[in-house]
């Protein structure tokens, strides 16, 4: 399960750095955690995984369509 944790962490890091593959890794980690939580008989953990997936999906949709590199703000230095 440490591997699943590392996949999820790598996905969040990549998604935070505007790399589209990050969202795929986050989804893979969620898909691996959910069956584990259900098989282990931990409905609270399964609910947490579902909530994490919902928040990740919201963040993906919010970021979708934005440029990969954020715009630079021009500062007027004239005084």
In short:
The protein is mostly helical and 79 residues long. Helix content is 70%, strand content 0%.
Structure in words:
The structure is a single chain. The protein has 79 residues and is mainly α. It has one domain. The chain contains 3 helices and no strands. It has helices at 2-16, 21-39, 43-63. Helix 1 (2-16) runs antiparallel to helix 2 (21-39) and helix 2 runs antiparallel to helix 3. The radius of gyration is 17 Å and the shape is elongated. The chain starts with a helix and ends in a 16-residue tail after the last helix.
Count of alpha/pi helices: 3
Helix and strand element order: HHH
Head-to-tail CA distance between termini:
58 Å
Biggest beta sheet summary: none
Residues in helices, as a percent range: 55-70%
Keywords:
79 residues, mainly alpha, 3 helices, 70% helix
Task: Write the SSE topology.
Elements: H1 2-16, H2 21-39, H3 43-63
């Amino acid at each position: 399960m440490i591997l699943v944790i590392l996949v999820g962490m790598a996905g969040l890091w990549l998604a935070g750095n505007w790399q589209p593959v990050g969202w795929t890794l986050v989804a893979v980690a969620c898909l691996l955690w959910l069956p584990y939580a259900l098989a282990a008989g931990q409905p609270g953990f399964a609910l947490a995984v579902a909530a994490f997936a919902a928040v990740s999906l919201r963040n993906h949709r919010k970021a979708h369509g934005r440029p990969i590199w954020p715009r630079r703000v021009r500062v007027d230095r004239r005084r």
